[in-house]
Amino acid sequence: MSDEHHETFEGADAGASLTFPMQCSALRKNGHVVIKGRPCKIVDMSTSKTGKHGHAKVHLVALDIFNGKKLEDVSPSTHNMDVPNVKRTEYQLINVEDGFLSLLLDDGSTKDDVKLPEGDLGKEILEKFEDGKDIYVTITAAMGEEHCLQYKEGNA
Fold it and tell me: Which residues form the Translation initiation factor 5A C-terminal domain (predicted)?
């Protein structure tokens, strides 16, 4: 019976690890925060005192880490806000097929579920790869999404 109970907790905990709570007053510029359900990087923040019995409020300006859209939020400094767990991993690019990157994992298998970025970044990666250059892409993962946000050329 106790084993079954333990498994239930593990299952419940797995989904909760996408974000963690942090008091608003502890957030910092260039840190991360969740605004309107999106993982964001804080680009500006200010604290304002309100009336005689009011609480200080924190005004956050942040950019979505995946699409660059500007989002803003105002919250009492004593409240908790969600902070996304952001992970960056570098992979060697071994192929581009049907708009997806084929990436080499440490164990020799491949990861084929990350889209080629749109716009200039995607064009640059594709051109350099087709020219035979060794390309290493950095995949940023947060809140169940993964995107290629940068790359570098390797030493061939």
Answer: 85-152
Is there a single domain that holds both residue 62 and residue 104? no
The per-residue pLDDT for 23 is 95
Residue-number span of the structural domain to which 96 is assigned: 86-153
pLDDT in tens, 97-121: 999 999 999 999 999 999 999 999 9
Number of domains the chain is built from = 2
pTM attached to this predicted model: 0.81
Q: Are residues 90 and 108 in the same domain?
A: yes
